[in-house]
Write a structure and sequence with these properties.
The chain is an alpha/beta fold. 27% of the residues lie in helices and 26% in strands. It has four domains: 52 residues, Molybdopterin biosynthesis moea protein, domain 2 (Alpha-Beta Complex), CATH 3.90.105; 108 residues, Pyrimidine nucleoside phosphorylase-like, C-terminal domain (Aldehyde Oxidoreductase, domain 3), CATH 3.90.1170; 144 residues, Molybdenum Cofactor Biosythetic Enzyme, Chain A (3-Layer(aba) Sandwich), CATH 3.40.980; 195 residues, Spore Coat Polysaccharide Biosynthesis Protein SpsA, Chain A (Alpha-Beta Complex), CATH 3.90.550. α11 links the parallel β24 and β25. GO terms for molecular function: nucleotidyltransferase activity. Keywords: Magnesium, Transferase. This is NTP transferase domain-containing protein.
Amino acid sequence: MKFGPVPLSRAKGAVLAHSIGLEGQRLRKGRTLTAGDIAALDAAGIAEVTVAALDESDVDEDSAAAALADALAPDPAALGLKIAAPFTGRVNLHATQAGILRLDADALHAINRVDPSVTIATLPDARFVAPRTLVATVKVIPYAVPADVLNRAIAAAQPESLYVAPVVRDTADLILTEVPGMKPSLLSKGQAAVEARLATLGVTLASVRTVPHDTDALADALGEGGAALTLILGGSATSDAADVGPAAVEAAGGHLERFGMPVDPGNLLFTGQLNGRPVIGLPGCARAPALNGADWVLQRVVCGQDPTPDEIAAMGVGGLLKEAPIRPQPRSRGPVTARAPKVAVLLLAAGAARRMEGRDKLLEPVDAEPLLRRQAERALASGAARTVVVLPPDRPERAAALEGLDVRTVIARDAAEGMGASLRRGVLALDDDVDAALVMLADMPEIDTPHIDRLIAAFSPDDGREIIRSTSADGQAGHPVLFGRRYFESLAQLGGDQGARSIVAEAGEHLVDVPLDGVAAITDLDTPAQWAAWRKARGEG
């Protein structure tokens, strides 16, 4: 790859290295310069630009990042992962299920040692994650890398060097012990705290029993449980491996695995086995909601990743969880974990199709099914969290075409007013937890699932990318267009035939153009003649 300033005459097809603001538009870095871009730069009096020009042996940043991510997770669903579409040389991997993230640190280090241009970053090993949590990101730093560098990184990748182990023990028995003079509120407080902990892990509390703090009574209670694991919260702290809790496990026919752990708070935890099921003796700090060593053990155990004594011993590094005295205030919550944005597709299908000479263009057969159903299926197959289809009140055939699909339909009773009315109805129907809406026109047959995923991958409010607009390969603006939540209020105020062009025009640096293959972003079919020409181009006669 050659990097540096070049005259405009040599810039076409190269990658723009630094963003340039022009009147009415902004060319962002990473953009492949088109003839239209060159003309705009020339009109602005810019004689040269800094670009990256790829050699024949180079692999562009997006293709390289995608190839490495695929090598790390060749069957992502089986690993509890979802691979996002590449954008700006980055591919994010998200959890698809709750569970423990497991890493092969040596394999990941080997990738990062191949070359500084190819990287992978992850959350820590054994972190409990929720669905949609960002667990890893592959980033190719320059605009392209030599093929041999990429091949060495792929060779270093191990297919199971990262995965999410799901929750496999989803029920638990809780045994509380009480000592003379113990306040009943301590028992209820302990039960509530444990129940809340389990709920965050997707585990149900199957039974709760309260017995005296006595070895025989506790042993009898241990023999009665039938859940996947048993938790003991004693009325008195466990002080020795021969104390009441550990002794009761052995008296019931089980065995003690470990007493004590190098995590504070949480030192007085013990673990054991009884009838093939794990038993965890919780430390007294488990009555409080703050993070403690028992959380780390419990998270692993419910996911079938039972920690060995050596693994518990290794928790000491990083295991000082108490507040440092120099902190101005205690921690109010855990670290903020990035998650995949929740994007809804708004499939606009309320148009009147007046130019179709009596035919309904959205019911035209494409690949042996109505166009509307086909495009809804493509939206459903994407990384979008849900699909909302906006329909007119007088076309029941369109609703029938969607039968059996997991879409939400919204009737735009004022659809005759124009696209603005459909947009307004669709946005108002979105749930409060939706981060962005991808507005997709149902009469654009060349828009496919990978296009939708590419637009979603480009959305990043933290990086100022809040409106993502599709363009043709040569830079002509088109559809779909994705809008971040901050624009929902403006979209909900649209009316009549007023589309969202005014919102896009005022977006400034928050607007990012994403080129799609060929003319997919600008191909809509409004007349029988256009349909006939399109079918002929597809080889349908």
